């Protein structure tokens, strides 16, 4: 995979290299020619034009198809942990939802937190088992709005996510019901698409509804 990526990089740069070399050779040829004929002048104009086209092709290609963010291998062991005391329905739903997110998005690690309890950890597990609510998660719980940290290393507040792998690149904190948050970690910065975000929101809403219903039943009981 790395070799294929390097080959693609060279292919993208090839027009720039050819255009730059061609333009340089035309300039040297013009400087070293004592007498320039009309036909040579016309050929030089065509050559400069073609070199410029090749260089512009590379620049436009980079804008249309930017280089994708580089992924890393997250540090930690893969696992699946559920809290004790969950109902069979909730445990099954957490397992189903986490499987969908891990297999259909760039998520490599995720944690489900609800009402002061870590309900689930799955994927590449972080060093700490329990979630300690920090400012970013508190904001998600209070405002009921998701927080997407596109490049985690740029945020000083990343220290609160010590329950995710240390080299996690991007994070989504998604509200999950009235008292919960679904935290997802990716192995590449700026890797979640709008479609991914919509997918995460829908699954978190479904999980939150189930957890809110169970919490209401427990209060009535």
Automatic annotation (TrEMBL):
An example of a Pfam family matching this protein is CCB2_CCB4
Write out the transmembrane intervals.
Answer: 14-32, 44-61
Its GO biological process annotations read: cytochrome b6f complex assembly
The alphabetized UniProt keywords are: Membrane, Transmembrane, Transmembrane helix
**Superkingdom in the source lineage:** Bacteria
- InterPro entries, per this entry? CCB2/CCB4, CCB4
Protein name per the record? Cofactor assembly of complex C subunit B
| Protein species of origin | Adonisia turfae CCMR0082
